[in-house]
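Data availability (excerpt). The following record was deposited with the supplementary files.
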Amino acid sequence: WIFQLIFRFGTNQIQTNSLKSTHEKIGNHLCITREAATRMLRYFANEGAVRPSRGTVEIIDKNNLVGIAEG
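Predicted structure:
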């Protein structure tokens, strides 16, 4: 989803270190359920890349997040 955000909103969106979005909005953007978005964010959090909180996803380690996204 990180590459979709960069493509749609440009690199400025990722440089802020936080995205103001709910799990539901992220799910809607990716055409997945809120539950699936929550699981995805939990995985990224367990990998130390993000810190999701109510209404915001803080990017802790951008390089790690990009590495996860690239596979």
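Summary of structural features: Residues 39 and 50 are 13 Å apart (CA to CA).
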